[in-house]
Amino acid sequence: MTVLETGGDQLPQERRIVTEIPGPRSRELEARRKRAVAPGVASSLPAYIVAAGGGVLRDADGNQLIDLGSGIAVTTVGNANPRVVARAKEQLDAFTHTCFMVNPYEGYVEVAEALNRLTPGDHEKRTVLLNSGAEAVENAVKIARVHTGRNAVVVFDHAYHGRTNLTMAMTSKAAPYKKGFGPFAGEVYRAPMSYPYRDDAAAGTKVSGEDAAARVIEMIDRQIGADDVAALVIEPIQGEGGFIVPAEGFLPALAEYAKANGIVFVADEVQAGFARTGAMFASEHEGIVPDLVTTAKGIAGGLPLAAVTGRAEIMDAVGAGGLGGTYGGNPAAVAAALGAIEAYESDGLVARAREIGEILVKRCERLQAQFPEVGDVRGRGAMQAVELVRRDSLEPNPELAKAVAQHAGANAVLVLVTGTFGNVLRFLPPLTISDALLHEAFDVLEEGFAAALR
Ligand SMILES: *Cc1c(COP(=O)(O)O)cnc(C)c1O
Fold it and tell me: Is residue 373 located within the same domain as residue 395?
């Protein structure tokens, strides 16, 4: 059976091991890659993919991996979702590009309307479409600066906002994201994040969200001055930082402080957005209404698209020509986004994220009961993680995370390692995965822990 015959969406939903992973064909491709591709671009598992759909990835050797990564929270509607593929194909047959800044087309407007409707709050909104999460974050900062006439941007420990110059400055982790790439953009200030697992242990008591927010507010007042701050940019659940869910009350307290001081509150929902956490946007879990929301990853079922959506009076501050880009809101990408949004709304995927979340939490807690190295289980919906430490301590255990991920990969389960300390296994499967595949993947992970700790 060729890939064209099956189509990604018709792949049999099973784990399949045909060769060692990566197999001979993947290793051949990897050798070519080493000669042709810049080594700065790394891959978690060099099994070359030829088809994907539902909850599996098929590699060039015919192995089928269970996908717990969704291409980093991108293929939330599944890889090769028929609604996405049909709309993108139809658009490609009509035309591929005009540049929205030259000749507009309806799809761009439709996606803007959908984002204005779906993002938190029922105030009047506007949207600009872009190509990547980093570009969305950059544009949110540009817009906030013009609107406020202020410069400073407040970001957080463990934050990840991208790889461009401004977003490197906003990202927390030095290696591999920043080291050697400076000098970085100025007027970026880093505040302490609410990190319940480590905060509570350090304090010897539960640190409330309000107390964690008070640390941030004190830092801003003392080091910057609230009336010089243009924007406060925060991931409502941190992604690359290690799926850190702030203590309840932290986000509302910061949103309130921002509002009281004329600071634009920007929720970076690039990773947590689009049904992933069991709500359309992660901000909803605590009833936050951000001034601006940045989106990308899950927006278009795998095609490159990103957006800034926000209050009309803030978005309207930038004059004609101040925002845009050659490819921003590409016709095929907006068609795909309309398909993905239809899938989120019509196929019950928000509820499915909550169901998947219940299975993930159960299986993570079962790992924790067996292996004391699992220090913390955290997340929301289909965005869950385990933080690994050395036994009876808080000391990060990146070696264990790596060993388990390697065992998983060799046994056809794709799992991603993340976190500031490289000691977090994150689980973010496509929402089209079956319960059976999830359980099978966790059986493999359990074996991986047992093997690594033996
Ligand atoms: C991935 C990510 C980005 C950067 O997105 P790119 O599309 O890789 O530029 C920004 N913010 C968050 C929260 C992300 O997870």
Answer: yes
Percent of the chain exceeding pLDDT 90 equals: 98
State the closest ligand 1 atom to the C-alpha of 162, by its place in the atom list counted from 1. Answer: 4
Nearest to 328 by CA among 67, 128, 152: 128
Q: What is the pLDDT of residues 294-347, one digit of tens each?
A: 999 999 999 999 999 999 999 999 999 999 999 999 999 999 999 999 999 999
Q: Which of 291, 311, 346 is the last residue of a domain?
A: 346
Residue 260's alpha-carbon distances to 164, 177, 178, 219, 257, in angstroms, are: 31, 34, 33, 16, 5
Please give the pLDDT value at position 7: 54
- Name every protein residue with a CB atom under 6 angstroms from any ligand 1 atom: 132-134, 137, 160-162, 235, 239-240, 268, 270-271, 296
CB 416 within 8 A of CB 68: yes
Substitution site in 139, 161, 269 for ligand 1 pocket (most atoms within 8 Å of beta carbon):
161
In this structure, the residue with its CA closest to atom 10 of ligand 1 is 161
Distance CA 139, CA 322 (A): 10
Whole-number Å distance, alpha carbon 271 to ligand 1 midpoint, is 7
Q: How far is CA 208 from CA 16, 133, 143, 250, 380, in A?
A: 46, 30, 32, 8, 19
Beta-sheet pairing, 56-59 with 64-67: antiparallel
Q: Which structural domain range is residue 224 located in?
A: 83-346
